[in-house]
Design goal:
The two termini are about 15 Å apart. It is built from five helices and no strands. Helices cover about 50% and strands about 0% of the residues. It is mainly α. It has a domain at about 20-40 and about 50-85. The longest helix is centred in the middle third of the chain and has 13 residues, at about 50-65. Helix 2 packs across helix 3 and helix 3 (about 50-65) crosses helix 4.
Length: about 90
């Protein structure tokens, strides 16, 4: 996973910035690598993202308080979260 340089600029302000600390913890646990190794789901040829990226987004969404799948979409468009998960 990509290391982020944290700056307080108007463009990158986000209410979900605290998730960055949780993402560092996930890195220490090698959570994304573990998901890549252990979770095998057949994906279509048009799939844009790895299953590990989708699961990490789902995990971060739940930790951020998401209670509905529609709330995951909100976090998916967060610039800081996208940069951390390398979804650009």
């Amino acid at each position: 996973m990509k290391k982020l340089k944290i700056q307080f600029t108007e463009k990158l302000l986000t209410k979900n910035a605290g998730l960055y600390l949780l993402s560092l913890f996930a890195d220490k646990l090698s959570l994304k690598s573990l998901l890549e190794k252990e979770v095998h789901i057949e994906r279509g040829i048009t799939a844009q993202y790895n299953i590990s990226d989708i699961l990490m987004l789902l995990i971060l969404s739940v930790l951020a308080g998401a209670k509905h799948i529609s709330q995951v979409a909100i976090l998916r468009h967060d610039d800081v979260v996208r940069a951390y998960l390398e979804l650009n």
